[in-house]
TrEMBL record:
<dbReference type="InterPro" id="IPR036097">
    <property type="entry name" value="HisK_dim/P_sf"/>
</dbReference>
<dbReference type="Pfam" id="PF00512">
    <property type="entry name" value="HisKA"/>
</dbReference>
<feature type="domain" description="Signal transduction histidine kinase dimerisation/phosphoacceptor">
    <location>
        <begin position="167"/>
        <end position="195"/>
    </location>
</feature>
<protein>
    <recommendedName>
        <fullName>Signal transduction histidine kinase dimerisation/phosphoacceptor domain-containing protein</fullName>
    </recommendedName>
</protein>
<feature type="transmembrane region" description="Helical">
    <location>
        <begin position="61"/>
        <end position="84"/>
    </location>
</feature>
<dbReference type="InterPro" id="IPR003661">
    <property type="entry name" value="HisK_dim/P_dom"/>
</dbReference>
<keyword id="KW-0472">Membrane</keyword>
<keyword id="KW-0812">Transmembrane</keyword>
<feature type="transmembrane region" description="Helical">
    <location>
        <begin position="90"/>
        <end position="113"/>
    </location>
</feature>
<keyword id="KW-1133">Transmembrane helix</keyword>
<dbReference type="GO" id="GO:0000155">
    <property type="term" value="F:phosphorelay sensor kinase activity"/>
</dbReference>
Length: 212
């Protein structure tokens, strides 16, 4: 049982907990006094970092490939113009088409990578929810187990108290049952030793009475 004693001090009352009976139960580490985000949140964050590290993300490589493509196209256009000067309008049209195709390819690839990253983010969110659900179920199970252990401890303590009280009562009755007749026997042996009612008759009888 828990007794709360309230004592008023100079500034504010203080509550002192007395008579708290410890519950001797082996509860796993997850159910002990640990912060709510100490274990599960770190697992979720590490898993999210792992998934996001695997997720592709558009980088400067796309820009580099685009510039390289345009530079190569410009180089070959200059070579063709030096060989056949009359093809300048056709080269300009081809160069503009290459620019448009490169830009559209870069934009499409960027959108594709972003969609892939969005799918990885959704996967990470689903795994977070699954981890949170699993942890909540484990915590609920551990709390139920702790309550069962506390209840079993209380029942066993009551049984132990009843057994101790029964033992004390039995020893008290046994002591009384032995002491009452022994008082008469010891008193009668004392009378026989002093031969109050006459001689005993043989010395060995006195030795027997002395043993009593």
């Amino acid at each position: 049982m828990i007794h709360v004693v309230t004592s008023k001090g100079a500034n504010h009352p203080k509550k002192v907990m007395t008579g708290v009976e410890p519950v001797k139960s082996k509860i796993p580490e997850l159910c002990k006094t640990a912060p709510a985000d100490a274990g599960g949140l770190s697992i979720i964050k590490s898993r999210e970092k792992e998934l996001m590290a695997r997720a592709p993300f558009p980088s400067n490589l796309i820009v580099f490939i685009g510039f390289c493509t345009l530079a190569i196209a410009l180089f070959f256009s200059a070579i063709i113009f030096s060989i056949v000067p009359t093809l300048l309008p056709i080269q300009i049209v081809i160069f503009i088409c290459l620019i448009l195709v490169s830009g559209m390819a870069a934009i499409g690839y960027t959108l594709f990578l972003r969609s892939e990253r969005t799918s990885y983010q959704a996967m990470a969110l689903v795994e977070q929810q699954n981890l949170i659900t699993t942890m909540a179920a484990q915590i609920s199970t551990l709390r139920d187990r702790q309550n069962n252990l506390r209840r079993a401890y209380g029942e066993e303590k009551l049984r132990a108290d009843e057994a101790r009280n029964s033992k004390a009562a039995f020893l008290a009755h046994l002591n009384h049952d032995f002491r009452t007749p022994l008082n008469h026997i010891i008193g009668f042996a004392d009378l026989m030793t002093h031969q109050t009612f006459g001689p005993v008759g043989d010395e060995r009888y006195l030795a027997y009475i002395g043993d009593i």
